[in-house]
Write a structure and sequence with these properties.
With 226 residues, this protein is α+β, with helices and mostly antiparallel strands. The protein has six helices and nine strands, in the order H-E-E-E-H-H-E-E-H-H-E-E-H-E-E. The protein has helices at residues 36-42, 66-80, 89-94, 138-145, 157-161, 180-195, and strands spanning 47-52, 55-57, 60-62, 100-104, 116-121, 172-173, 176-177, 213-218, 221-225. The strands form four sheets. The chain has a three-stranded antiparallel sheet, with helices on both faces. It has a two-stranded antiparallel sheet with strand order 2-3. The longest helix has 16 residues, at 180-195. The two termini are 17 Å apart. 13% of the residues are buried.
Length: 226
């Protein structure tokens, strides 16, 4: 995670990347992830979170039995969202489904009393369910569609189109110059996307987000992409 004093981030140019909009010297840098709980709740996404305190030994940081904690968190996720009824629990809940796990370490510092948070949630409906026979690139496309939705995600139509960089003086539509109204709409959307980004594997985050994508095809056929 980038430190709040990182010189590459300018508070004046990007106040939305700071918890209190860069108004104080000790303001905490939050980056494009923003308020995770607020975004998940606003988009009515099933989720569960758990706080963990890392273990230190000779000043080396250990994740404190994270696999066991993930198993416990998944059980709590199923129970809280009433996903335990009928059939094999793993097959019923995860078969042809994407699941996102976020380890939020934005509080990490030299203070050994800090606490990390693990979030487990389903992605939005438009990139959650895996087709019966997905094309090889489906999983890459789904991760580029959404990891954490923004407050304007809606049905995900714009997210599915991708975050395309627009050069206002080069936009062409049906062979004609784009109208002034359309140019203004695109400018406003670019500004909104800066302040409230839909986080994907293609998001620019100044190195603050590391994504591991696991594709479990069979018990002994698991792909992992960085």
């Amino acid at each position: 995670e980038k430190d709040k004093n990182d010189k590459t981030v300018n508070k004046d140019n990007a106040p939305w990347l700071w918890e209190n909009h860069g108004k104080s010297s000790d303001d905490r840098w939050i980056g494009p992830m923003g308020n995770i709980k607020e975004k998940l709740t606003h988009n009515e996404i099933k989720h569960k979170t758990h706080a963990i305190k890392p273990t230190y030994h000779n000043d080396y940081l250990y994740p404190n039995n994270t696999p066991a904690r993930l198993n416990d968190l998944y059980k709590q996720f199923r129970e809280e969202n009433k996903m335990n009824e009928g059939g094999d629990e793993v097959t019923m809940n995860l078969h042809r489904k994407r699941m996102v796990v976020v380890v939020d370490r934005r509080h990490l510092s030299s203070d050994k009393e800090i606490t990390d948070h693990i979030w487990m949630y389903e992605p939005p409906d438009n990139c959650r369910d895996i087709p019966p026979e997905p094309v090889p690139e489906w999983h890459i496309s789904a991760a580029k569609t959404c990891l954490l939705p923004n407050m304007r995600y809606g049905d995900g139509t714009e997210a599915a189109m991708g975050n395309q960089l627009v050069k206002e003086d080069q936009i062409q539509k049906d062979g004609k110059k784009t109208s002034a109204a359309e140019l203004q709409r695109l400018k406003e959307k670019k500004e909104q996307d800066k302040r409230d980004p839909n986080v994907t594997t293609a998001s620019s985050s100044k190195g603050s987000i590391l994504t591991l994508s696991f594709v479990v095809k069979e018990r002994d056929a698991i792909d992992c992409k960085l």
